[in-house]
Amino acid sequence: MSAQTPSNPSTSYPQYPAAVHPTSRDDETKAPYDDLIDHYAAPYGSQAHRTYAVDPASMSRHVREPSFPLSKHSYDTSRDYKSADGHNHDPPDWEYPPPPTKGEKVEKEAKTWRSYIPDSLACRLYLLTVLVETAIDLAIEGDIILRFHDAGSSDSQDMARRRMPVYLSIFAMAHVFQFVLALDAVWGRNVLQFITLAIFNALLLLYAVIQITEISNVTLTLTDGISHVSINTLAIIIPVVISVAEIAYIALGWKIYTEFGWKVYKFLGADRRIKTMFTHHQIFLCLVKFDLFFWVGFSVQFIWLVLNHHDAEFYLTCAAFPLSIIVLIEGHLAARHENKWMMLSFLTGCGGAMVYFVYKLVKVLRYKDTDVFKEVWESLTTFSVLAILLLVVTFVFALLVMNNFGRGLKEQIEKNKHKTQGGLSRGKSQYVHRGPMSTHPNRMSID
């Protein structure tokens, strides 16, 4: 029985002529489906006639479950895929995200050396300032050391000839140490280390001012050196350079503090407990680094200016010098890996070092009027007192850091470690743009 069209127009059913009989206007706006299919099927042209070997055991599985392991990467699978002609071909790529193309690999290798240059302008200027200060002061210190080395002296002036090159060498070593810590502070985003570097540079300024008086009091007949500039003029230039650098450190340090504050917040999150533990961790690492400098400075002075090669104490001090460095490295590794046994060993080493420095300080103060300590007791006392104070503070923060073991700081740092490796430490985003979809056919997109 055929359907009849109702006679009443008001009760007629709605008609959809466009859905049944497309008009000429619809033909003009209709999407070219054949072109779209050819466009999106182009990347799969190499796999158009490929057949796949199916595991018979997989036939017992659910009909919707794939017979190939999705958990493995395509290049890790052991299945053999063959085409219709019997030749082996690469298996289909099921991994996500897709691997980078050759162009991206070349671009990544070309930018490897740039990853060591900070993106922040303040960090670049900071490192440039430290580099310029270090280069100028090292050149001046080297010229002065050569003048003392070439100067002739009598027996009464031999101590001054031995003492000044050692002090100048320690001063030069301090500048190199400062530059290394500046690089470490920028790369590790250690805001507290920038503050301590400003304080350390102020101490260098004080030492440079005292050095002017010590050099002017030397009665040796000095040569003109390499620069042929008066030695008193060179001694005055050093504190001037350090003063200008100190102003730059304070200004740039404040700018870096504001920049790194937000980056550290993104790195650690909003958990105040994690931030407090991370602060203790950073302070401890900073103290360990400065312990290293004062331990080395004291040992160099004591070995070269006080001890005699025929004394047993000379060899004991030389043996304790590398041992102390090993103890400090052990403390750094213990805090990084949260190893309690290593931290306990570090605390034991700190206790032994404290006894050593107290013994040396008492000996220096007791024999300060003798010929051996008369010219060097002030410098040795300063280094030993600073080393003891740093050891006490380091011991306290080592206990705080060890108490924080197992409370989530290590896991938080490891969880966000890929952000730092991906460029977050240099102010970049951790997301990577892999190009258009046509170059990565397995990549899904919602437009």
TrEMBL record:
Residues 1-14 have a biased composition (Polar residues). Residues 1-38, 53-107, 416-447 are annotated as: Disordered. GO terms for cellular component: Golgi apparatus. The chain crosses the membrane at residues 166-187, 194-213, 233-257, 283-306, 312-329, 341-359, 379-402. Residues 23-38, 73-92 have a biased composition (Basic and acidic residues). InterPro entries: UPF0658_Golgi. Keywords: Membrane, Transmembrane, Transmembrane helix. The keyword Membrane applies. It comes from the Eukaryota. This is Uncharacterized protein. The lineage of its organism: Eukaryota, Fungi, Dikarya, Basidiomycota, Agaricomycotina.
